[in-house]
Specification:
mainly alpha, two-stranded antiparallel ribbon, binds zinc ion
Length: 109
Amino acid sequence: MTAVKPVEARCDHCRQTRPLFLYEPDHGHLGASQFSCRWCLREKQPRLCVRCWGAEKQLEENDSAINEDAETMRQICEGNARAIARDDAVRAACDGIAEATRVAEENAS
Ligand SMILES: [Zn+2]
Ligand SMILES: [Zn+2]
């Protein structure tokens, strides 16, 4: 088994020679906030040492614009789920009315 050794080079943040990992942001955007987002505006993601990588991750997780987008996304998904549930309820009610009407007509004849 060959263990892959991370490359040692100068960290883009602290400029110390350490094993480096490419930072890849893990978030999405709704609307225009990506044009002011420090991660999305980067041409190239930095290579960071473990410590700086962790700090960067924290920054990303605590970014209010990203969190707002995530919250809006969550609300949209919840709204959709509610709309689907409502449609199902309406359909079930209509089926019930149709069935009741059919039974009533059968009994009347
Ligand atoms: Zn560093
Ligand atoms: Zn972004």
